[in-house]
Design a protein that fits this description.
2 domains, 60s Ribosomal Protein L30, Chain: A, globular, Phosphoribosyl-aminoimidazole Synthetase, Chain A, domain 2, alpha+beta, 9 helices, binds magnesium ion, 7-stranded mixed β-sheet
Length: 355
Amino acid sequence: MVGKSDVERIKVMHGAGGTMMQKLIKEHILKYLSGSNAEVPLEYLDDSSVFNGIILKSDSYTVKPLFFPGGDIGRLAVAGSVNDILMVGGEPKALALGLIIEEGFRIDMLDRILRSISETSKEANVNVITGDTKVVEKGSIDQLMLNMSGIGLRHKFLDRNLDVVKQYYGDRVYRWILDRNIMPGDKIIINGYIGDHAIALLSVREGLGFQIDVVSDAMPLNRVVNEALRVGGVVAMKDPTRGGLSNLLNEWVDKGGYGIEIYEESIPIRDTVKNACEYLGLDPLMLGNEGKVVMAVVDEMAEDVLKAIRSQPGGENATIIGEVTDKHKYVVMRTVIGGYRVVPPPIGDPVPRIC
Ligand code: MG
């Protein structure tokens, strides 16, 4: 007989975007659900999947608190789902909203969240066209949870972008922008400061006792991605959400089969965020972001892509933070003092319920 303590149970870390979540997905979810004939199937574990030319994405939002500096669960949901469609080279076309509401939730707060969904959708040039509403008994969930699913179509600049890639990589043909596409020599670009979202949330959580001036970066990245693809040369794109930059880069190394070197002094981190991380014992590389994109770009095109991104809202602080290498198969950081250290994937995002 199996004793009570032998039964494996889900822990918070299983949903925290690190190695524990990867293990849960690979050993349980993929075990039953992989094997479709989708062009970009579930088992690629990319930001979205592609079926019959349609990009499909589903994402749920459990952020706590529901309102935070720089945003709320509604803005987060639109940005999160739209960004994942953009990341594979898609143009977001329509959204589906699932609302799960705890009995007793204030209707004026629901209105605020729906207004925010409407405004952020306009910003992302997309509409919510279907949905579902459920109310559950008091105590069975914490206030409100959202599911935001979406569809997209091939981005109008995707083929143009891939033509530029082809000029440098020849026969290596890409159909979509996928994690596995990274190639030695690619430059790694990020569109701005990391850690703002997680630290903004922590600053308003009860009991932490620190006040700082930082707002969430939650935003749809249509314009930044449009400009990058218009210039061309982008081979991989991913948003550093749960698990942050370190999880993202380790996924690229895993799927792409090459190493990545990043330069500590180039990684944009605000002093306020750096200080908060020191105070709380957190690694900014592992913190989740909701308005950031990391791109692997053909070396020769990197400066042009960078310039284009910087001209867009959300891209002003874009910078090159590293490159792909065939010298090893790790994520390695060249530190400010000139040493090197391996950047491991996080076990899970150290800050739960940030998205
Ligand atoms: Mg993503």
